[in-house]
What we know:
Blueprint lengths: L3 E5 L5 H4 L7 E4 L7 E4 L15 E4 L9 H6 L4 E2 L6 H16 L2 H10 L7 H11 L9 E5 L3 H12 L3 E5 L5 H6 L5 E2 L3 H7 L2 E4 L13 H5 L5 E5 L8 H9 L3 E6 L12 E3 L8 H21 L19 E8 L4 H11 L4 E9 L2 E8 L5 H8 L4 E7 L6
Amino acid sequence: MAKYQILTLNQISGHGLHRFPATRYIAGKAVEQPDAIILRSFDMHAMTIPASVRAIGRAGAGTNNIPVAEMSKRGVPVFNAPGANANAVKELVVAALLLASRNVIPALAYVASLDSAAPDLEKLIEDGKKKFAGVELPHRSLGIVGLGAIGSLVADTALKLGMKVIGFDPEITVDAAWRLPSSVRRAAGIEELLRQSDFVTLHVPLLPATRYLINDKRLAVMKHGAVLLNFARDALVDGDAVVAALRGHRLKCYVCDFPAARLLREPGVVALPHLGASTAEAEDNCAVMVVDQVREYLEHGTVANAVNFPNVDMPREAPYRVAIANANVPNMLGQISTAMARAGLNIHNMVNKSRGEMAYTLVDVDSAVDDAVIRAIAAIDGVLSVRAVPEAASL
């Protein structure tokens, strides 16, 4: 039996890689004709992605380092692991709230600057104590932009700390809405949230519509002395506008996970070296989740949590299966069915779903599908990729 070959472009948690059965998979950095690629932060935009690749799995949430549009044209799903690192990010956001509210970072810097041999050291310490007095979190307002897996966890923890929570997410899913604590007040718009929040934290993906979501105009409507937290994506925030707001004393503090050059050593900025998902548990969770998704796709054609494909799952009712990715245009199912009928194949079951311009079809048939049928389907205008999924009995 031929083995699947998996190329790893970063160090991937063994908890995930061990879920590839050694009898059917070869995984490593030296694979030349991979069936799939698993990565974390490696930038794939400059690499030549082999034609053999059928799936890409990102052991994390963001996929900016993957040429998703190019993969869509090739009919290759790009999987990620939404929510797998949510607890790790939530804990760091809560730590950031506490750091900012109690002025911990400037206080540490002050203490580090003291001369341990100074005769008036105790007086200097007491003087510093007055300078760095902070505020407590209960009854303060936290505005959360983005109420997905991370945002809902942050909301729940903030409520338990006694904070008032305001949320805004025009794209909230039904599942996310169910996870959200009932006491979170929904803002009608982002400006309303900014005007009413003592602290604002961002938890949305970086898209053309969210680039510089926080800019000079929106910083201008924030509460005087508010704190802005960004543990999502650097470009959600206009760094120059943040620096101007800090220097103008409108913004008290900017705590982020992205130490861009223009922010380094800027008073009022606390920049961490991208620690959001940097825990052993998060790395394990992301690897396990994405490996399972890639396996399900390779072995059964199932799609779950692909950023460019619809979710598709169909229980096997026949031993032979064909998976087809195609442009979401009229008469594709008719042409696919016709090609199979001409080959004498009886369709036992079929499911087709679409997502934007992409459609994906699984077809179960009662007899083996030879290469001629695959070539005939691949020749249909609009078909992006097609393959015979392994027989159920061989798995």
